[in-house]
From TrEMBL:
Keywords: ATP-binding, Coiled coil, Cytoplasm, Hydrolase, Nucleotide-binding, Protease, Serine protease, Stress response. One of its GO terms (molecular function) is serine-type endopeptidase activity. ATP-dependent serine protease that mediates the selective degradation of mutant and abnormal proteins as well as certain short-lived regulatory proteins. Required for cellular homeostasis and for survival from DNA damage and developmental changes induced by stress. Degrades polypeptides processively to yield small peptide fragments that are 5 to 10 amino acids long. Binds to DNA in a double-stranded, site-specific manner. SMART domains: AAA (SM00382), LON (SM00464). This is Lon protease.
Amino acid sequence: MNTQAPRENTTLPLLPLRGMVVFPGTLLNFDVGRKKSAFAINESMKADQMLFLVAQKDIRTEEPTAENFHVMGTVARIRQLLHVSGENIKVSVEGLFRARLCEIVQEDPYFVAAVEPCAETGRAPRAATAQALLRQAQDLVGEYTEIGPKLPEELLTEIVAGKEPGKTADYIASNILPQQEDKQTALEELSPVKRLTLVLRMLRHEIEVLRLEQEIAQKVQERIDKGQRDYYLREQLKTLAEELGDQSEADESARYHQAVDKLALPEESAKKLHKEADRLARMPQGSHEATVVRSWLDACLTLPWNKESKDKIDLAQAQKVLDAGHYGMKKVKDRILESLAVRKLAPEQKGQILCLEGPPGVGKTTIARAVAKSLGRRFARVSLGGIRDEADIRGHRKTYIGAMPGRVLTALTQAGTRNPVLLLDEIDKMCESYQGDPSAALLEVLDAEQNHAFRDHYIELPFDLSDVLFITTANNIDTIPAPLLDRMELIELPSYTREEKFQIAKRHLLTRQLHTHGLTRRTLKVSDAVLYDLIDFYTREAGVRRLERQIAALCRKAARVIAAGEQKTVSVGPEQLESLLGPHRFRPESIPSKDEVGVVTGLAWTSVGGETMPVEVAVLDGSGKVELTGSLGDVMKESAMAAISYIRSKADALGIAHDFYKTKDLHIHVPEGAIPKDGPSAGVTMATALTSALLGLPVRRDIAMTGEITLRGRVLPIGGLREKSMAAYRAGVRAVIIPQDNQPDLAEVDKVVKEHVRFIPADHMDTVLQNAILFPPQAGTARAEAAAQTAPPLPVPPVAHTSAPVVEQ
């Protein structure tokens, strides 16, 4: 094998290697898959079959460049070439001599490099030095063979027969050293003695690593053997304890068997529990698996399989319970009493699931507690807000670390009976995630056809949920999936009116806060006017939570004065409110002081009740641009576009210039621009404001409206009429234009509102414009005459203290 290096420089095809280093005097077989490498091999075969093999610095690089090559490589001759499937080539090369990469003279379609042959350097070693190094190499290879992987016999023979330090170093580095970096370092050393010394140092380090691995494996095996030995000894101790009558450990399994027998469970469930109790008896006392089985048995046995409370349905008592805890809410109370009456007459009827929908703070949770109290059942609550894992409902598989039952069965365990009133709170705030859809897991829980055999993933036994009275709560049913909503009967809890808030504060909130703060009605006297002012000027909400907090603030300030001995009694009147609670946070809302052009009072529904929403329109000379401001949502923007299109189609009939959309700029603005607004009920308001601005005629200040508009001018129905009408009443509006299709909803409007506000049904924009815009009577047109006929005198505005919420600063 000729490995002598020529003295002159040469140009050869370059083949980059990944994870391999070729040494002179060695044979290497490898696969070639890259196109550049295949071109280089084919070009070499056409010439003298010579290649320059050099290792890549980073084996992850798929398309290397000159900067990614090591400088030192090996010139080799192709010994054998074999084309396999696809574009892969199997090649066998023979390393000839070391060479240094001078430059890359070609990159496409393959690398061509100018290389400089490298001869060995340094003086020839003394015979004794060479022999000592070779013997040390033989000894280290033998030591490596004892603790490392077995080496082929021919490799050991070649090392024993080696006479030259340089070739022996190359042979050891090529066949034994595992790291590419170590091989490249050995290739770059040109002195034979230094190279063999370097390789022996690397081999000694590899032997130390192998010894450490062997010690670690031995320690692991010793621990395993110790565990098996401990298990054997525990089993012996258990047998001896049974023979001697010491049944402390053996009795644990028997206790579980007795507990299962007392429950009188169905055959399938009892069989499963007995089987797990038997398994526990055969396990080591301190093993992890025994802990898992023990926890599972405890969870199963604490479930209320056969414990239930008897219903004590007394409709008169139930009425008292509901009235004592809640003021008003007649429809809600009637629906709950009807449900209780049906349950009394037909106890076998199951699957009735009520969903209480309403804004925060209107008493949904307390209604559920009142239902449980009136039935004589236990009460349990499960908060579903923010749940995104299906396992929270169904439980975790018990094989996982930290597994536990789902929230439904956990709540039943806490209630202690199998038929409690179970409140699923905030059912509209569950979320989907990669961990599953919890709302889908609730489908089985709330389905009377399935929940008689509900299987929790942790318990794995069928549990009957059909006797549980489920009550759910939600702030907005729009986010509840349709299949889940279909399983529930919806009961709406509307926002409280001003009078209802006053009665609730006077009857319930004030009494509760006085007791909480150690006060009585004698030590703290709060007038009715104070409660009204708290409602009007310090709160903005659909419920009464903030109102209760304001009452609590008054109680705290009174408690401080009384506890300090400054006064024995405290009386709070409206004139003291600002000094105690600060300036008014909300201003009274009222209608405009005069009839204005392009200004219309609309009505909007919010999560805290209804409010007025004025819409302003300005018509400016321009080129037909439309500007929408006021933080409007997509639906309101579309309503504005629909209103403009309707006016364009009716321009001649309305007396508006037919080319206004070319010569005028329209600016539609809804005040309080920082507050996002959206919803399908502003189309009528925008169309009226636009018509007023284009005609230059004022709109009646004491009229409000709500409704959506079509391109043909039809008025579409809306929701939230009760809350919107209450907002109009508070603001002093004398008439409200509503869609014709919303007339049945007037039955839900408060009586006091209907006494002071006239409702004008409209099925077309013509009716809206006739009643809202003040057309000049002298015009003598049919439109003005119709307006005069359809706009009878309005009632006297309500004489009451009015206020409407605005954004709290």
